[in-house]
Amino acid sequence: MEPGQWRIEAVTIERDADEVYEYAANPANFAEWATSFCLSVRENEAGWSIETTEGEMTLRFAERNPYGIMDHYVASADGPERPNHARVVPFGGGSRVIFTVFQAKDPLDLPLALGCRNVREDLQRLKSVLESEVSEGSRRIGEGKRRKAEDRKG
């Protein structure tokens, strides 16, 4: 994909950056916070697969790292891998999740606007999930949509 336009979407989360990274960069949790796109996630022998609004795709995250880089890549069976660049950084007493939304060279702004809206919604969902976990104590996050996918398969 040759980049055309791009925008930065970000959200502040009242959680330690390491905790946000551990949760958000774990593919098993993807369906819980990337709800504008991902319907369910499952691990298989080849890695991770996600059921999306566009059909089944593979999901791959960047190698674990100490820098908060949580780039992830999705690909349909017959399409190229699409990068999604994201990072978690310390911010005050919490963290900031920064996501760069790219649009392939195209004269229309609609795909970029929709992509930005979806990323904003997903980042707000990530914030909600992680901040509500603090107030709910020991609730295990990331279990709901994975279980639904496993139930459908088995």
Account of the protein in words:
This protein has a single domain, classed as Alpha-D-Glucose-1,6-Bisphosphate, Chain A, domain 4 (2-Layer Sandwich). It contains 4 helices and 7 strands, in the order βααββββββαα. A 7-stranded antiparallel beta sheet has the order 1-7-6-5-4-3-2. The longest helix is centred in the last third of the chain and has 27 residues. 26% of the residues are buried. The C terminus is likely disordered.
| Number of separate domains | 1
Q: Which descriptor suits the 3D outline?
A: globular
Q: What is the assigned CATH homologous superfamily?
A: START domain
CATH fold topology:
Alpha-D-Glucose-1,6-Bisphosphate, Chain A, domain 4
Major sheet: size, sense and barrel closure? Answer: 7 strands, antiparallel
Please state the CA-atom Rg, rounded to the nearest Å.
Answer: 15 Å
| Helix-strand sequence | EHHEEEEEEHH
Uncertain regions: pLDDT < 50 for 5+ in a row?
137-154
Alpha-beta classification: alpha+beta
Q: CA-to-CA gap between the ends?
A: 37 Å
β-strand percent reads 35-45%
Average pLDDT works out at: 80
Number of strands: 7
Could you name the CATH class? Alpha Beta
**Helical percentage:** 25-40%
